[in-house]
Amino acid sequence: MKKESIYVIGHKNPDTDSICSAIGLAELKKAEGAANVLPARAGDINPQTAFILNYFNVEPPRYLPNVYPKAADIMSTEVVRVSGATPLLEVMELMRGEKIRFIPVVDSLGKPQGALTLMDLAKRYILTEADGLREVTATLANIVGVLKAEIVLDYLGDSERTFSVYVGAMGVDSFLNILGDEDHPACAVIVGDRADIQMTSAERGVGLLIVTGGFNINKAVLHEARKNNVSVIISPFDSVTTALLVRLSTPALKVSANTLETAKLDELASDLKLRLSSATGIVVLDGDGVMKGVVTKTNLLQPPATSLILVDHNELSQAVDGADMVNILEVIDHHRIGNFHTSQPIPFICEPVGSTSTLVSELFRRKGIPLKKETAGLLLGGVLSDTVILKSPTTTHRDREIVGWLEGISGLDHKTFGAEIFGATSSLKNRGAEAAVGGDFKVFEAKGRKFGIGQVETIGFEEFHEEKLKLREELVKVMEKKDLKLSAVLITDIVLGTSMLLAIGEREIMYKLDYPKLDENVYELKNVISRKKQVVPHILSLFNAVY
Q1: 404 and 440 share a domain?
Q2: In this structure, which of 77, 79, 231, 473 has its CB flanked by the most CB atoms within 10 Å?
Q3: Would the pLDDT of 120 be above 90?
Q4: Is the same domain home to 417 and 520?
């Protein structure tokens, strides 16, 4: 199993606050001694965030398209494996000693050739027809190895042979009758200190004579064996034990399943669960076909190796895909509380401030943990972005106070820095319609119906009027793709402190959307700059009334 990875991650289509607060909180957790904590993102970096990251020469957090548990996350990497030449006795001893039911058979490069299960062995050695029990395919080295035998004569070398095994526990006539006309070099005879059976086997030219009980062989038998190229070994065990062990000298590859179940490292654990209903184990391969691990039903019961700390959101509809299938350890947010459940109590901070970066900064200050200059700048950028340079109605005295604290550490003036942030990224044309709509697009739900609103900060509305047809086309695409009842984007002039709403949706909602209408699908929202506090509550009330 992989070590647990903890990702601090914001919502889909991340804005500056979600990225900066994720980076800041990950740094805080590391400073507190947490291991394997990394900042992450669930979408592309928007131009404003890219500007701030570049400003401080900070790399973007790792992109996670989803966190669905995959084969690489749940597989066992310390896997017991055997080569194709390994005798079955050794395989069975490994199964018993390691308490496992599944062993892959691999070549010298680590590529799987098959797999062995307890059921495979049972089918071969318990459920086999009587005639099949007599047949053994092995090298002399394997037979000698399982018997701990002494080689007296060897005419077989390293070649693999298939023998019909007979036990000479009868008179010579009966023995010859059992041997019949079979090709004698393909026979292996197991016999104790019966010199007559030993001599007959040597005279008939059997392929292998196994003398049990550690008994010596007389010179006459050896002479006849040399004359007829009969290989001879001496087993320390009695004849019954020897017969059982010889059958377990067969190389693993001869018995391993031809139809091996394999998976890629990125295959979803949920898909493996379905496949394991009819398979004992699945071998996980890398791109070169080399085994990297094994997944069995036991692996599916293990807790996920990935855990999340959510920042700037707490609704699964806004979270990275697969968030409901991994551990959520903590939430730090400043939005409404949505449909969120955990199996265990967790720290949950959700307070009415202007940005999540404010909450993260307060944690640094409260805990007395030193804050790097660059991180202080990032968090300052997060606060200024979400509060629109402290002009948004969501701005609180806590935001203003923390901005002053961050200014002192970062050496930045918030007004100058804020103007740089918004000035560098205010052009709608440069962003393009897709990025403008989708860069900070959030989906909400009421009465089982969904609506989505994006937001873009600009300086002036000239470009909006020039680009509104392209923006409307993009809203239509998003509405269809996300199955929304309303799709909108809020264009906010941070200088005037007012906004335009471009919206499309179902007739009932559009009819009740009682904002001043300037043009087709365009509404004027004077003194409105907060999507969260001034627009979303109104749309939620409309949905509750209509549906």
Answers
A1: no
A2: 231
A3: no
A4: no
What's the pLDDT score for residue 180? 74
**Which among 493, 474, 377, 526 has a CA at the least distance from the CA of 426?**
493
Across all residues in the chain, what is the average pLDDT?
A: 91
**211 and 127 in one domain?**
yes
* Dist CA 167 CA 239 (whole Å): 7
Q: Looking at the structure, do residues 359 and 394 belong to the same domain, yes or no?
A: yes
Range of the domain at 323: 5-68+305-424
Q: DSSP alpha helices (H): ranges in 100-179?
A: 118-125, 130-133, 140-147, 172-179
Cα gap 213→208, rounded to integer Å: 16
- Asked if pLDDT for residue 251 goes beyond 60, the answer is yes
Asked if residues 539 and 511 have their Cβ atoms less than 8 Å apart, the reply is no
Total number of domains constituting the chain: 3
Of 89, 35, 29, 39, the C-alpha closest to 60 is 39
The amino acid occupying position 425 is T
Residue corresponding to tokens 């019966």:
194
The token pair at 180 is 């019949």
Any idea what the CATH number is for the domain that residue 511 is in?
A: 3.10.310.20
CA distance 26 to 40: 9
Closest CA to 286 of 265, 301, 272: 265
Identify whether residues 435 and 341 lie together within a single domain: no
Residues 100 and 246 reside in one and the same domain: yes
| CA–CA separation, 456 and 439 (whole Å) | 8
Which of 375, 392, 424 delimits the end of a domain? 424
Give strand pairing partners of 41. 63
* C-alpha distances out from residue 282 to 101, 276, 278, 279, Å: 12, 7, 11, 7
Q: Is the dihedral of CA 302, 306, 309, 311 positive or negative?
A: negative
Alpha-carbon distance 168 to 192, whole Å? 8
Task: State whether 510 and 363 are in the same domain.
Answer: no
Determine, yes or no, domain membership for 289.
no
Q: What is the pLDDT of residues 133-149, one digit of tens each?
A: 688 999 999 999 999 99
Please state the separation of Cα 419 from the chain's center in Å: 42
The predicted structure's pLDDT at residue 192 = 94
